[in-house]
Write a structure and sequence with these properties.
- By secondary structure, the chain is mainly alpha-helical.
- The protein has one domain: Winged helix-like DNA-binding domain superfamily/Winged helix DNA-binding domain (Arc Repressor Mutant, subunit A, Orthogonal Bundle), CATH 1.10.10.
- It contains seven helices and five strands; from the N terminus they run ααβααββαααββ.
- α1 crosses α5 and α3 crosses α4.
- About 16% of the residues have low confidence.
């Protein structure tokens, strides 16, 4: 039985919410240390943005990252040197440069997703089914409200994340959001 809105606490403990969010972020970031410990989070964040939009230009990437064109160009130079990114001419306009992940870059993102899903699933399997359903509903509502005031590019990047599926012990499945912003893992720990 769900409590009605009058029975819910009127105030949320921000420190308790902060601690719960830290546990979620720590679990989510654990994959970075296991899979991509040598790739800086800024490069992963750029790679997610590039993957989310086919043939993205340097200027569009800079806007999505909230960075200057020169900083974005230097970031991309490092990613090209490490084999994660290709910079090519636009197929329709040779004056434009477009960015695409290399096969190695795509493989890295896919491995990160798989590892994050395993790490999240390990935690979810220890939780009762009802609590998992409440967690997903609450996080979905939080994500909706958190991106509501963001600029369109940030909201599009958040929406570009593909859903994953976590198997239920009884054989069913439950979707889990797969967010891309690697900036959460700034210190590479998790």
């Amino acid at each position: 039985m769900e409590p009605n809105s009058d029975q819910l606490p009127r105030q949320i403990s921000i420190p308790a919410l902060d601690e719960a969010a830290r546990a979620l972020v720590t679990t989510w970031c654990r994959a970075h240390g296991k899979i991509a410990g040598n790739v800086p989070p800024s490069q992963l964040q750029a790679l997610y943005a590039i993957e989310a939009q086919a043939d993205i230009s340097m200027g569009e990437l800079a806007a999505r990252l909230g960075a200057t064109s020169s900083a974005t160009s230097r970031l991309c130079d490092r990613m090209i040197a490490s084999g994660l990114l290709l910079r090519t001419g636009h197929p329709d306009d040779g004056r434009l440069v477009v960015l695409t992940p290399t096969a190695e870059g795509r493989q890295l993102l896919n491995e990160l997703r798989r590892q994050r899903h395993r790490d999240l699933e390990a935690v979810l399997r220890r939780m009762p089914h009802e609590v998992r359903a409440q967690l997903l509903a609450a996080l979905s509502a939080f994500a909706e409200h958190a991106t509501a005031g963001e600029p369109p590019a940030a909201a599009q990047l958040a929406a570009a994340a593909e859903p994953a599926v976590v198997a239920e012990p009884a054989g069913g499945s439950r979707p889990v959001a797969d967010a891309g912003p690697a900036a959460l893992c700034q210190d590479g720990t998790g």
